[in-house]
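Report of the visiting student (M.T.), summer placement. My assignment was to run the structure pipeline on a short list of targets and document each run. The first record concerns Acetoacetate metabolism regulatory protein AtoC.
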Amino acid sequence: MATNILILDDEQNYLLILEALLSDEGYTITALSDPETGLAYLDESEVDLVITDMKMPKLTGQDVLEHVKKNFSHIPVIIMTAFGSIESAVEAMKIGAFDYITKPFANEELLLSVTKAAQFAKAQQENRQLREQIKDRYSPNNIIGRSKPMMQVFEMIHKAAPGSSTVLVTGESGTGKELVAQAIHQASPRCDKPFVSVNCMALNPGVLESELFGHEKGSFTGAVARRRGRFETADEGTLFLDEIGELSNDMQVKLLRVLQEKTIERVGGVDPVKVDIRIVAATNKNLKKAVEDGEFREDLYYRLNVVSIELPPLRERREDIPFLVDHFLATYSADNNKVFEGFSPSAMDYMTAYEWPGNVRQLQNVIERCVVLTSANVIATEDLPAEIKDEEAQFKSAVDLLPAKLNLADTLDKIEATLVRRALVHSNFIKVDAADMLGISKSLLQYKLKKYKITGK
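After the run finished, the structure tokens were exported:
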């Protein structure tokens, strides 16, 4: 796609020369002698680069530059100026001009400057497109869910995003904690700044310290140069600390100091480095219990837990499963150049009734597997993995999810609630059929639905 260049100059000869020269190089040129008309054109047209003379009637080149920087900050501006006005061109560079060219100019000099500016404009456009793609991908609108628990999550994201308070996202593995962190970042004023993610469990404490805070040259064997850490990389943006509950005591102290003082010290360094970041932390641990057990610092816990967002496990929002299935089926069908009508009713019943110990991540993997291995245009029960359609495996999955220290009565209640819920799913939520499937009366089923707070669909 050709680069669209707007040229503003009140000298007609220069307009003709520039238009001819740059058109021959494949650029699309709009040449105007009136800068006010040029600004109106900018507001209505796609422009990738502006070349403007410094001295013009009505508006100066600096006026044009200031308008572009205020309203179209991604568009580079090249200033043309007479030799005697270089000082004003240098001043224009200070406020954001991409380059300046002195008149009369050599064609090679002008073409080199335009080539660099066009490359910069293309990179800016690609970056904007990439940011929009990321913003769309991680916006709350693209976190799939219509259940009441997810509506509460969306509300918390909406409330938390505009501020800078630390957010603690909790939930089982596979529930989508990083997706929530990305959504918070993309809906925040920091969305154009970096989002940096660190898994605190993936690195040992020594490596993690250098990864987070960076290090000075010679601070340890192999440190051949100064290196910026993730805190500095995320400056003015968002730092996502996943598996925060796995931090060692020493790292907890260092992190607490950063949160309190807004500064870091590189490994081997003595000078504090100021950082402006927002922290979003996540864990699948019960941090409050970890505090009670002496495994996590209480002061750090309260520093992190300013805004708390708890993600429900998939088994507690089963009404979202069909929407997630449709979403991932469409995604993986496109990736594999296949077309599916969907899941058969029986297969969908199994998908909805399953306990999903791996949560959304497991559901996603199962659907990808089905798409890859299924030849028909409908995914049937026989296409599902054994653990999904095996009744004993489902029962074992439900039991394995129960806390180990439950007493027998509580345990039996949990199992009974699971069986009632599964019967409802298999009977398409027709209570008479569900009662028959369980071998109980409809009135007894009604009692159990009320007892376990099961509302149906």
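The mean pLDDT is 86. The domain at 315-451 is CATH 1.10.8.60 (Helicase, Ruva Protein; domain 3). I thank the supervising group for their guidance throughout the placement.
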